[in-house]
């Protein structure tokens, strides 16, 4: 009898043990690899490769949550766009408004009427998550923070993001201010097209007003830039409602990934989760670089342009991602230029796309752009070309 009781007890124990993992699994939305243990302590998370946008892992990635100071990823994107377009200069001096100086939360303690360069204000945002620096730059770019927020939400629409809405440039608590892990990853992907941003987000410590009486020590809120090799950005976040959040990026060899974690209970859990996600990416995948950002892909002759020989460049770096040890022999690329191109063109305007394929399977499509402004040809230039064509035809 004791023998049967013992066997029965062992069987019941085995059944109980086998059931535990099933109930303990974290549910994930569209988790491409089925690895459900990467972010057990976060409300939502996502891991993507930057160049291709390939989803490597996600957990509740489309759940709307408060992004806290990760909002500044969008703020930084609009700042970098303004710098790239020449509407803002690094050495330009900005006078700080009373409103900007009055911002609470994380700040670099700007004073109303103080003057500071765009570059130093950018450091205040990128390193120390300064709400005051964010508003000062927002007011300079758009005239007011409200107008800047309109630009932020216009960019959300341009990126075709469905679950993000901003009410301020800082991430301070506000009603109807939300985003998702997926949307934050896409905004970060867009920001990283401006590769110089990591020259600021990777700084661990620096100073504002160095050598002056009111010198301020900047320390990066993202400790992984110091403690995880390859991490060079991007933005942390915390409020009582949002808990601990982080949009991080790291590069190893030619591979750059973006990891987003939202709603972790502690900084330790947040950083450990992001580290685990990055480990997974770099241990399981490799990338093959095809083209660098701004690399010339092809040339185009536009007879109605002032300078008819036009260089067409990659709008961002282009890669393919594959599992460790997988072959990339069947990778090929195709250039498709627009049939009709209207002049004038501004630097960065799209004139085609580069398609990357694995055999016949389309892996990615990347915009091809012009690297400089293209003006319409003057009447004199058109007349001269007509004469040259006439002479050649004789």
Automatic annotation (TrEMBL):
Name used for this protein in its record: serine-type D-Ala-D-Ala carboxypeptidase
Peptidase S11 D-Ala-D-Ala carboxypeptidase A C-terminal domain: residues covered: 285-376
UniProt: substrate binding residues: 235
Active site: 69 (acyl-ester intermediate), 72 (proton acceptor), 129
Pathway(s) where this gene product acts: Cell wall biogenesis; peptidoglycan biosynthesis
Entry EC number(s): 3.4.16.4
Catalytic activity: Preferential cleavage: (Ac)2-L-Lys-D-Ala-|-D-Ala. Also transpeptidation of peptidyl-alanyl moieties that are N-acyl substituents of D-alanine
Any Pfam family: PBP5_C
Organism: Virgibacillus profundi
